[in-house]
UniProtKB/TrEMBL annotation:
Ranges that cross the membrane: 74-89, 95-116, 168-198
Underlying gene: RTNLB8
InterPro entries hit by this protein: Reticulon (IPR003388), Reticulon-like (IPR045064)
Major localisation: endoplasmic reticulum
Protein's recorded name: Reticulon-like protein
Membrane-topology annotation of the record: Multi-pass membrane protein
């Protein structure tokens, strides 16, 4: 087991080294030379003006420690467990109902054997262990899931009535992209890919933060440059109409 955990940690380190070698280490000069105050490195040291550390952005608790691989044994075990569950359902073509029924059968056989062994050994049935899930568990799960769903629905409605065409278009494109991805993969695979991304991208960004920031700023600069070319060559030539004459009429 210890060997498998070390192997998973070494694989992550090798992945980090490979990606870091592919990330350009040059500074994003063009974007900052344009004098854009919103993305100037003089005004913000981190991407999008972030001042806190990556660990603090993720809450600074045990969840942040898990996502940022503070304990490689725990993080690698969680990632390996998620991979095992995904492979169990996706590759071996098992179904959730089948797994639940088989688990219940195994539990019944174990308790049946324990009960008969207890009667043979003259033990009381009260000593037989019983599995009882606390009610608070279901309440906490329902409250957490319901809060996230309501927050998402509230965000969607705020965007729909907010009269911000840019934000509205971005959200619609994001939902269309999610629908397209959902047509390629099933829900389990999408959840697994998101889980793997959540357990690899943050630690990659934390370890090579400066290189990623420079790369993203360079990318923003290229997008800004292409938009200016498009605006000067095409968008600015679109007739907008004479508003003054319409008001006078």
């Amino acid at each position: 087991m210890h060997h498998k955990e070390n192997t998973a940690g070494n694989m992550l380190d090798n992945l980090i080294e490979t990606i870091s070698d592919a990330v350009p280490k040059n500074k994003a000069g063009k974007f900052f030379e344009d004098g854009n105050p919103a993305f100037s490195r003089n005004n913000m040291d981190k991407l999008f003006g972030r001042q806190n550390s990556v660990h603090q952005v993720f809450g600074g608790g045990k969840s942040a420690d898990l996502l940022l691989w503070r304990n490689k044994k725990i993080s690698s075990s969680v990632l390996a467990g998620a991979t095992l569950i995904w492979a169990f359902f996706e590759w071996l073509d098992y179904h959730l109902l089948s797994i639940l029924c088989l688990a219940l059968i195994v539990g019944m056989v174990v308790q049946f054997s324990w009960s008969n062994a207890s009667s043979i050994m003259n033990r009381s049935q009260s000593e037989i262990p019983r599995l009882v899930l606390p009610k608070e568990l279901f309440v906490n799960v329902a409250v957490s899931v319901g809060g996230q769903v309501n927050q998402f629905l509230g965000f969607i409605q705020d965007v729909a009535i907010g009269r911000d065409l840019k934000q509205f278009a971005m959200v619609v494109l994001g939902l269309l992209a999610a629908a397209l991805i959902g047509s390629w993969f099933n829900l389990l695979t999408v959840i697994y890919v998101g889980f793997v991304a959540a357990h690899t991208l943050p630690v990659l960004y934390e370890k090579y933060e400066d290189q990623v920031d420079d790369f993203m700023y360079s990318l923003f600069g290229q997008i800004q440059s292409q938009y200016r070319k498009l605006d000067s060559g095409l968008l600015s030539k679109i007739p907008k109409g004479n508003l003054k004459s319409k008001k006078a009429d």
